[in-house]
Write a structure and sequence with these properties.
Strand content of chain B: 15-25%
Strand order of the largest sheet of chain A: 1-2-3-4-5
Number of helices of chain A: 3
Helix content of chain A: 25-40%
Strand order of the largest sheet of chain B: 2-4-5-7-6
Structural class of chain A: alpha/beta
Radius of gyration of chain B: 29 Å
Shape of chain B: elongated
Order of helices and strands of chain A: EEHEHEHE
Largest sheet of chain B: 5 strands, mixed
Radius of gyration of chain A: 13 Å
Structural class of chain B: alpha+beta
Largest sheet of chain A: 5 strands, mixed
Largest interface: A-B, 25 and 26 residues
Number of helices of chain B: 17
Strand content of chain A: 25-35%
Helix content of chain B: 40-55%
Shape of chain A: globular
Distance between the termini of chain B: 64 Å
Oligomer: heterodimer
Number of strands of chain A: 5
Chain lengths: 128, 518
């Protein structure tokens, strides 16, 4: 099985998803750049695609690496809120956990990721 | 237990409201908001909070309380706020939306409301603690959104008008169809659409007011007060937009009665009143309008407190306040942000209330009046009665098979012989065709009379088979004023109301039905 999700690149934000080597059912996605209004449309498509792939592949965990992401505005955060809602709405057998990898040096991540996790505390974990 | 249909109505209206809150918030932080946007967003959140309390949606109520705190601080900061601040407001709006979409009784699995509220409180604390000069942020260079998210209004006037336009097209197809089967099928479709549209045009007042009155009684119980209801409600109907305005007005006025008016049982007994307070709601219909009276037997408006608050807020000076009449003091309660409360309670006290009532009613052509009664307070809102009937000139189309009408704004003059440029209206709306396709056939022009219609500088001649008569028509499928045709009912008979001034636009109204005005 391989992941069928085009890399997000060429704009202000980049993102790439891959299957975690040696860990069955684990997807890893790395974000870098800036998630602002300019990135919103592309990011929306990418995250929807990521969810579809996670369901298709029967993922048990998706690791979201925000460590290289310099900034995310509230519009883009809404995309992640919507994603969490989608995962929560899945049948429990299809739900997957989401691990957010954060960078303590990126101050914007401190509150925003904690607030984001409140939308699905049973599914989201934050790792630094 | 709140009935499911009322809960559904709460959800629907609240989702529209929270959509509007989101769009307004976006415009405020982008500094592209309309002048009264800050007031509008406060009203929306305040109303949503009140509605949530009434239907027992505690989580929504709590979040709205936090949203109000955030919005007040944001306004103080002129919307020069930190990224964290903007984020928690946006997320709070999302959280409310998520709670509203949650099915009744569904568990809060995974939603950590206390955790989220802590995040909001942290942001509020940090933002208040910052020195004024550091509160604002250097906003990131972001491109302005190309399109704002706009709330979807399922019952908006434009939507209803679009549906009416489509239904009218079906009616014309029915008129021109040949063959019993086609005609009866199209007739059935038209009837269904017509019924749906008629339902959309009216909202019953009685259930709406009963709901708010009962909710007020529940609310009173929740705060340790006793409330008896006296309802004298006529079977009146109003336009849905008017119903929405009444919805806003009723929630504020009845909540005010419970919070400010009705005293706790011990205080009432001490004042020589029955322990039970009374809320009386009655409707009175008169020509062209409907009045809704909401009266309580509580402590009444504290005019002295209004006077002192007005002076303290610098609204009027002490000398003017001392000389102010009762009516002038009552008028002050309609000022934006005015409240005699010095503390904010869960029910009210933020000064967002009567201002919202007046604005909501004014938007639909209504008004509100408050009076201090010998015992308690009386609030009356007057709203326009729905305009369903209009005067028209009715006549029969050439051939006599189709009933037509034009608005009585036009002045008709009959000519026994039509002018050469007289238009056959059925030809214009393409009800004729080959004998295989259509039921309506062109008549012999020899039997026509001419109808010269004048309205201001406009003049048009139509062919008719009868002289016009002035009658009353019921609007059963209202299309926009600039649409060429509408179906009305005259004595129970469906009639095509023509708008001669727009007949030439028929082609653009329905691409398949080209116009032929000469």
């Amino acid at each position: 099985m391989s992941i069928q999700l085009a890399k997000l690149s060429g704009g202000v934000i980049s993102a790439e998803a891959s299957l975690e080597a040696g860990s069955a059912g684990v997807l890893r996605v790395r974000f870098s750049g800036t998630a602002d209004l300019e990135a919103k449309a592309d990011l929306d498509v990418f995250v929807k695609g990521l969810h579809a792939e996670a369901v298709r592949l029967g993922a048990t965990r998706v690791i979201v690496d925000f460590r290289e992401l310099e900034f995310m505005n509230s519009s883009c955060f809404k995309i992640f809120v919507a994603w969490l809602a989608q995962v929560r709405d899945l049948d429990p057998t299809q739900q997957y956990r989401i691990h957010l990898l954060s960078n303590p040096n990126q101050l914007w991540q401190r509150r925003s990721l904690a607030a984001l996790s409140c939308f699905a505390v049973d599914l989201v974990a934050i790792e630094t | 237990m709140v009935p499911e249909e009322l809960l559904e109505r709460f959800r629907t209206l609240s989702l529209e409201r929270i959509g509007r809150v989101e769009a307004t918030w976006n415009s405020l932080v982008q500094h592209v908001a309309a002048e009264d946007a800050a007031r509008q967003i406060s009203r929306d959140v305040h109303t949503l909070k009140g509605d949530a309390a009434i239907v027992g949606a505690l989580e929504v109520h709590i979040l709205c309380q936090k949203l109000e705190d955030l919005l007040l601080l944001a306004e103080d900061l002129h919307y020069e706020i930190s990224e964290d601040f903007e984020l928690v407001v946006t997320m709070a709006i999302q959280f409310v939306g998520m709670l509203l979409r949650k099915k009744r009784g569904a568990p809060m699995t995974g939603l950590d409301l206390p955790g989220f509220v802590r995040q909001v409180d942290d942001v509020l604390r940090e933002s208040r603690a910052l020195p004024t000069s550091s509160r604002g942020r250097a906003r990131r260079a972001t491109s302005r959104p190309t399109a704002q998210d706009t709330p979807r209004d399922r019952l908006s006037e434009p939507t209803r008008q679009r549906l009416a336009t489509s239904a009218t097209a079906v009616f014309l197809e029915y008129l021109s169809a040949r063959g019993t089967s086609s005609r009866s099928r199209l007739r059935a479709v038209w009837q269904t659409l017509k019924q749906e549209l008629m339902q959309m045009q009216i909202a019953e007042l009685r259930p709406l007011l009963e709901y708010h009155a009962r909710a007020a009684a529940d609310l009173a119980t929740g705060v340790g007060k006793q409330l008896s209801l006296e309802l004298e409600l006529a079977d009146a109907v109003v336009d849905p937009r008017v119903a929405e305005a009444i919805d806003v007005a009723a929630v504020h006025v009845m909540r005010n009665a419970v919070d400010h008016g009705i005293e706790p049982p011990s205080a009432r007994v001490g004042a020589g009143k029955p322990a039970n307070g009374t809320l009386r709601v009655r409707t009175v219909e008169s020509s062209g309008s409907i009045a809704i009276h909401v009266e309580d037997d509580g402590r009444g408006i504290d005019l002295e407190a209004v006077r002192q608050r007005a002076v303290a807020r610098g609204v009027i000076d002490a000398a003017r306040a001392a000389a102010a009449t009762e009516a002038e003091l009552i008028e002050l309660v309609f000022m934006p942000g005015f409240s005699t409360r010095t503390t904010v309670t869960e029910l009210s006290g933020r000064g967002v209330g009567m201002d919202a009532v007046r604005s909501a009613l004014a938007r639909v052509g209504g008004s509100v009046r408050v009076e201090k009664r010998p015992v308690g307070t009386g609030v009356t809102f007057a709203v326009p009665a729905p305009v369903r009937h209009i005067h028209v000139y009715q006549f029969l189309a050439p051939g006599g098979a189709v009933s037509l009408a034009v608005s009585a704004r036009w002045t008709p003059a009959v000519e026994q012989v039509p002018r050469d440029d007289a238009v056959d209206p059925l030809h214009t709306i393409q009800l004729y065709g080959s004998s295989r396709q259509t039921a309506v056939q062109p008549p012999s022009p020899m039997r026509d009379v001419g109808l010269r219609l004048r309205w201001g500088f406009l003049e048009i001649s139509l062919r008719s088979s009868t002289e016009p008569r002035l009658v009353m028509a019921e609007r059963i499928c209202p299309t926009p004023d600039d649409h060429p045709v509408e179906v009305v009912s005259i004595d129970g008979q469906e009639t095509l109301l023509l708008r001669p001034e727009h007949l030439s636009e028929l082609a653009s109204a329905w691409p398949g039905r080209s116009a032929a005005v000469h």
